[in-house]
Amino acid sequence: MASGITGSDVKSLQVQHDTIEVQTRGKGTVEITGRVRDILKASGITEGVVTVFVRHTSCSLVIMENADPSARRDLHEFFDRLVPEDTPWFQHTSEGPDDMPSHLRMALTRTSESIPVSSSRMLLGTWQGIFLFEHRRAAHLREIVVTVMGG
Amino acid sequence: MASGITGSDVKSLQVQHDTIEVQTRGKGTVEITGRVRDILKASGITEGVVTVFVRHTSCSLVIMENADPSARRDLHEFFDRLVPEDTPWFQHTSEGPDDMPSHLRMALTRTSESIPVSSSRMLLGTWQGIFLFEHRRAAHLREIVVTVMGG
Amino acid sequence: MASGITGSDVKSLQVQHDTIEVQTRGKGTVEITGRVRDILKASGITEGVVTVFVRHTSCSLVIMENADPSARRDLHEFFDRLVPEDTPWFQHTSEGPDDMPSHLRMALTRTSESIPVSSSRMLLGTWQGIFLFEHRRAAHLREIVVTVMGG
Fold first, then answer.
1. Taking the mean position of all CA atoms in its chain, how far away is CA B6?
2. Which of C51, C56, C90 has its CB closest to that of A114?
């Protein structure tokens, strides 16, 4: 690869923020790759980094295989079993049995991801999709900040 | 949102590093949100990204709910149980029973986080706080590098 | 520390991407710190952030202790036990018993890391190494994008 902006080819900095609102339908993953791509395209930035940041502590991000839906079903079930909602010793349960498990499943996955941008495209691998991972049982409107920084 | 610096509004790049020293009191979480905010403010950078990076492999970062302390108590206990200190097959125990669990709890959480900055403010959600997650039993002085990059 | 580029000392933006190809020998960790350092050095960028991004969903990144190999052996075994290959309820098994465990071990660790750069050096801690974490049983050729952005 070894592409990029170097030497005499320097540019001025550009920073572009945008917010994706995602309406979830309760627990599960929602792909946002296309929406991040649209924001990158609109930014006009050709070389740099896209930062994806979820503004919540009861949902998270994961860059996951986007081909076979069974991979995501197993992902959901694994986290359901790793952090069970009927854990008897949880104290933080004021919002219900999915309250504390949501925070823990978030802590075990990601809040921010940084994805390289070259020639106006994210350098995702063939099978990589960017997903919001909703951990609450109820539907929620979630906010994800997408920041494109570069030149 | 759709704020940012674009088109004719480009700026020159600024990069500002600063180190936060955190004195921990053994296992648990210590909030550093205010100290990151102070570094951002001092940098004078209005649009960009803050990178928070912990320089250790036996403590980590987590962006966690900052309102109800019971959420953090459950977080601590969950990781104590997920990676028990009395795991009989651990080989890496030269620094005691909390040695290997510290590395594993670190690997399961985060070493770096990237947080968008717009209009001189981090775009954290209402309930999000940035925490150092100490995994060793003994008190430690920890170093976290905060980098503000933008314009 | 408090180093950096500020005030009248602003620079033009530089972005440099490069791809590291890592030949794995099946499950385990492969250190890439030296190769990231070489890319940083070649970029000529002195202040900024290095983003390391793995372009796969069945291997991941971890910044781990690089001194005692027993720490990494325990890391491997821990993830083998946390996500067992003989889990009976996995549906996503078309590529074998290590297929779904690979995705889950990836989701539990990291896809991207952001590391501060000051005075042409990554501000890694003394014991921190950057590792590719291969989760598949078979040898694979993996791609990691290293992006140096700064001035």
1. 30
2. C51
Helices (H), ranges, C2-147: 33-43, 69-82, 99-108
A-facing residues of B in 92-131 (CB < 8 A) are: 108-110, 113-116, 118, 123-125, 127-128
pLDDT in tens, C6-50: 444 456 899 999 999 999 999 999 999 999 999 999 999 999 999
Asked if B51's CB is within 8 angstroms of C49's CB, the reply is: yes
Largest alpha-carbon pair distance within chain B? Answer: 62
Please tell me the pTM assigned to this model: 0.95
Q: Which two structure tokens, joined as six digits, stand for A37? A: 């791509």
Q: Nearest Cα to B145, choosing from C10, C115, C104?
A: C115
Taking the C-alpha atoms of residue B98 and residue B24, their distance in angstroms, rounded to an integer, is 15
The mean predicted confidence, pLDDT, of chain C is: 94
Chain centroid to Cα C114, Å, comes to 10
Interatomic CA distance for residues C86 and C134, integer angstroms: 18
ipTM metric: 0.94
Rg (CA), chain A: 18
Q: Could you say which DSSP state residue A21 is in? A: E
In 3D space, the residue among A20, A125, C136, C12 whose CA is nearest the CA of residue B11 turns out to be: C12
Closest to A65 (Cα-Cα) out of A56, A74, A57? A74
Task: For chain A, say whether B70 makes contact (Cβ under 8 Å).
Answer: yes
Cross-chain Cβ contact B18/C2 below 8 Å? yes
